[in-house]
Write a structure and sequence with these properties.
30% of the residues are buried. Helices cover 78% and strands 3% of the residues.
Amino acid sequence: MMEGSPATSLITTGNESLPAELETRTAQRFRKVPGPGLWLPLLAGMLFLAMWELQLFHRLFDLKKYQLPLPSAIYEALRDNFSLLLSYTGYTLAEAVLGMLIGSASGFVVALAATAWPRWGGGSLTLVAALNAVPIVALAPIMNLWFGDGIGSRAAIVTATTMAAMAINACKGMSAVDPLALDLMHSYAAGKKEVFRYLRIQNSLPYVFTALKINTTASMIGAIVGEFFFSSRGLGYLLSNSIKVAKMPLGWSCIVLAAVAGVLFYLIVERLEKVFIRWHSSRRA
């Protein structure tokens, strides 16, 4: 076999020489081994559940079982009412996703306008932030009056609670462009539209996905709290009714499923971020 062919190429590491293909396979094998970032949280979670099941928290905080149900009781309630809980989780998640998409899109439009016309841009961002500061308990009756007691009122609540994060983050990303890149665009005689399309919007994408990840949790909170007041379905509705009739394991099963849905929602957005901004320096590590 000829010297220098790929099959006989060697990489020297210290005093030893390993075939390049063997070293590549070894590195891939080590990358597949779960690291501390995976098994440490799992161990911590298992330890937390074991302490909870053994009623250590009950003795520590002087709680009764009806105040803090055991994980085994929550699991039984989840198993016995799984079909109902799954249906209500889908309903709440639909409210959260719809409201977040509308709110994030509206916030992005506000950021575009604020960056394009900076004279009144600060005022528009202030108005959006003021809307976000309105408590959900005050928004719920207004949105119910405007949009009825269906999915539209909770989607409107989520829209109001997610608009500000997107508007502020996207505006920051569009404004914080590299001056050298801006000068380069001007040297190419690029107009305002081209600068926005190829520079400002591109630069804002990491900020946009940061806002989306914030909004995944905010949207679930807005949807669930909105269901406390005016709803006949959803996790918030079931949680509120379970507390009223002292069915605490069922109420806690609603909390567990809301947390799981929120985490999955977050992971989907994080995956989309990896797909759309591979060029960003944070994705090169």
